[in-house]
Amino acid sequence: MRVNTSRPRSSTALLCALALLTASFATGQQPQTPATSKTRIVLLGTGTPAPLPDRSGPATAIVVDDTAYLVDFGPGVVRRASAAFSDKDIKGLEPTKLRVAFVTHLHSDHTVGYPDFIFTPWTVGRRTPLEVYGPKGLKAMTGHLLEAYRVDIETRTNPDGNQRGFPEGHQVNAHEIGPGVIYKDANVTVTAFATKHAMESYGYRFDTADRSVVISGDTNPTQATIDACRGCDVLIHEALTPAWLTTRPDSFQQFAGKYHTTTAELAELARKAKPRLLILYHYASMSSEDLFDEMLARYAGHFVIGRDFDVY
Ligand SMILES: [Zn+2]
Ligand SMILES: [Zn+2]
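Above are the sequence and the zinc ion SMILES. Below is the predicted complex in structure-token form.
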């Protein structure tokens, strides 16, 4: 059983890893994907705006067989996908196969990797346009990015350019969405639900042949998240601990009170949503112990603290 992939750097971290393992056994938790499952969740980036080297910017892949669907593209997204492809043999994350993404909201920590997602896979061979779904403002952001990289696009597609044979690989079909079913193909149906953040924002539910997965994005606790899950297989949700919050300026504490979720609020939400597995991501805490102890004290269900490159 693998609880997380982080490398303990101290006895404290090791104790925490052992505590996680013990708790997993105690609750009968099975964090890894069942062997028969076709659908895997790959945590490409569990971070926040803080540029922590072990936690890349927010990006999550739902992979069905060999097709990947991204949720958010924080900084580092393509290199994280490439590493998951090469180190974990997740074929859907080979960079040229990245084609479809869903954006929870347009904050920079969730979108700084957008030009990386557009251009990097193209330079190594992607031939088909991208399909990207998200809130209002996505089309303008897309248009501005393509304009910002106009010199790059022109020089790669002119008669001297090495991508002139496949000039569509950087193109983007940007879809501005509302709540409801927003995407469907042979692998997956994706339903958006409105969340409560500082701007228009959405969470997403993925229904595949074998699993239901709900991801919150950044949000205050919402009934919509509970309704979207309702006993879902996996709920991936953000969290902040009270101890960490007290170290922040008053202005951020007020902001977080309206637009983020504390561990106490997440425990209450999860008791109502009843996911089979709760994965914490986009979390901020004083330490791993702080976050783990907070949740363990408040929530009796199965949960794990997500780490970059975890596969569930
Ligand atoms: Zn964020
Ligand atoms: Zn945000």
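The pocket of zinc ion (ligand 2) is lined by residues 105, 107, 197, 218 (CB under 6 Å).
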